[in-house]
Amino acid sequence: MNRKPDLNDLEGDIGQMATLLDLLVDRLVDSPEYTDTSSVALGQSVSLSIVLRDMAERMRVTMATVHQAWLDERRAPH
Predict the structure, then answer these.
(1) Helix extents (H) in 1-78
(2) Burial group, residue 30, by CB count within 10 angstroms (0-12, 13-18, 19+)
(3) Gap between the Cα atoms of 37 and 18, Å rounded
(4) Which end of the chain is flanked by fewer CB atoms within 10 Å, N or C?
């Protein structure tokens, strides 16, 4: 049985992405190689991971808001 993806799927995928990016940031920051004298590449990787994590979280919140507005609109009497 194949079903079409819906807003629940998209919201769930965005939430999982945010969770995985949060885990990546934690792992990078907690790695023994990450110090004040770390390589430039590692420092940039940490910075980019933090930006991506924060973007994913904003996407999750936005998607949840859009999804709820869509549900509210569908439930409203016409």
Answers:
(1) 7-30, 40-75
(2) exposed
(3) 28
(4) N
Condensed to tens digits (0 to 9), the pLDDT of residues 40-76 reads 888 888 899 999 999 999 999 999 999 999 999 999 8
Tokens of 70: 């869509």
Neighbours of 17 (CB within 10 A): 17
From the centroid of its chain, how far is CA 24? 11
* pLDDT above 80 (res 33): no
Angle at 13 between CA 55 and CA 63, to 5 degrees: 55
pTM: 0.75
